[in-house]
């Protein structure tokens, strides 16, 4: 088993006034040659957007982009004529493929939005752009892994597809609950909230650990916890 630990406080940080962004991997003005990616996972940003602010229209291509709101709601518009609000409990996926433009905006006049944005390198270049979002019931991840993203070539029923052999799971753990995760590739465990022990490490809120070259790992919650598992090919 090989591991790499990323403590929350070690992340890059950018304060743009309207946006506070924590970067697990090198992004924009934050560059760390030792933190470029974890396998096919290229970006994991933890963004806080001020009320009535947001990201103007901008382009992407050849990247799988996943957004997961933690609090608040984000309004989405794109060049595929999608215009929807993304809310807590939902997951959004975009296969940028041959190219698309989009914007994200916090319509609230009082509340901040906190959301995670992930970029995963695609398995195939220049696919037809794709967009979808779905609400995932919290009861279906209580002390068990809920599949929210899976490969379009081996899609798990009920999950959203991406153009990569990547899987994303969410799990909400009760205090002292123990669960085993079987790795498909390498897995990056990002603790949204709580405290867990995993691979002889203790993770607290927003800490993460990448684990690879093993078949399984045991996770034990030291307190109520919310965990994101990003399982991606390592090369």
Description:
The chain is mostly beta strands and 235 residues long. The chain has one domain (2-232): Sandwich (Jelly Rolls), CATH 2.60.120. It is built from no helices and 20 strands. The protein has strands at residues 2-6, 12-15, 19-23, 41-49, 54-60, 64-71, 73-78, 83-87, 90-95, 100-105, 113-120, 130-135, 146-151, 160-162, 167-173, 178-182, 186-198, 201-204, 208-212, 216-232. Strands 1, 13, 14, 15, 16, 17, 18, 19 and 20 form a 9-stranded mixed sheet that branches. Strands 2-3-4-11-6-9-12 form a 7-stranded antiparallel sheet, with no helix packed on it. The chain starts with a strand and ends with a strand.
What's this model, at a glance?
It contains no helices and 20 strands. It is an all-beta fold and 235 residues long.
Features:
single chain; 235 residues; mainly beta; Jelly Rolls; nine-stranded mixed sheet; 20 strands
Set down the secondary structure blueprint:
Elements: E1 2-6, E2 12-15, E3 19-23, E4 41-49, E5 54-60, E6 64-71, E7 73-78, E8 83-87, E9 90-95, E10 100-105, E11 113-120, E12 130-135, E13 146-151, E14 160-162, E15 167-173, E16 178-182, E17 186-198, E18 201-204, E19 208-212, E20 216-232
Parallel strand pairs: 13-14
Antiparallel strand pairs: 1-19, 2-3, 3-4, 4-11, 5-10, 6-9, 6-11, 7-8, 7-10, 9-12, 13-15, 15-20, 16-20, 17-18, 17-19, 17-20
- Report strand %: over 45%
Total strands: the figure is 20
Oligomer: single chain
Could you please say which CATH topology applies here?
Answer: Jelly Rolls
What profile does the largest beta sheet have? 9 strands, mixed
Q: What's the average pLDDT?
A: 97
**From the coordinates shown, what is the CATH architecture?**
Sandwich
Alpha-beta content class: mainly beta
Order of helices and strands: EEEEEEEEEEEEEEEEEEEE
Q: Number of DSSP helices?
A: 0
The separation of the N and C termini measures 17 Å
What is the rounded Rg?
Answer: 17 Å
CATH class, please? Mainly Beta
* Count of all domains: 1
The shape is globular
């Amino acid at each position: 088993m090989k591991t790499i630990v990323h403590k929350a406080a070690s992340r890059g940080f950018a304060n743009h006034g309207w946006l506070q962004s924590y970067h697990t991997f090198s992004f924009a003005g934050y560059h760390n040659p030792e933190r470029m990616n974890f396998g096919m996972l290229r970006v994991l940003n933890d963004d806080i957007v001020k009320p009535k602010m947001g990201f103007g229209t901008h382009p992407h291509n050849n990247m799988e982009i996943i957004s997961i709101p933690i609090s608040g709601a984000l309004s989405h518009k794109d060049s595929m004529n999608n215009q929807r609000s993304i809310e807590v409990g939902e997951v959004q996926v975009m296969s940028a493929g041959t190219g698309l433009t989009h914007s994200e905006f916090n319509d609230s006049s009082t509340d901040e939005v906190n959301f995670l944005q992930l970029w995963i390198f695609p398995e195939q270049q220049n696919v037809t752009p794709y967009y979808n979002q779905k609400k995932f019931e919290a009861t279906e991840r209580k002390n068990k892994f809920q599949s929210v993203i899976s490969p379009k070539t081996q899609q798990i029923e009920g999950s959203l597809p991406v153009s990569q052999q990547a899987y994303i799971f969410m799990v909400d753990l009760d205090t002292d609950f123990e669960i085993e995760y079987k790795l498909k590739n390498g897995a990056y465990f990002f603790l949204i909230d709580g405290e867990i022990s995993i691979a002889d490490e203790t993770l607290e809120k927003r800490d993460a650990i990448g684990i690879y070259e093993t078949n399984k790992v045991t996770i034990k919650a030291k307190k109520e916890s919310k965990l994101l598992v990003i399982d991606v090919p390592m090369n």
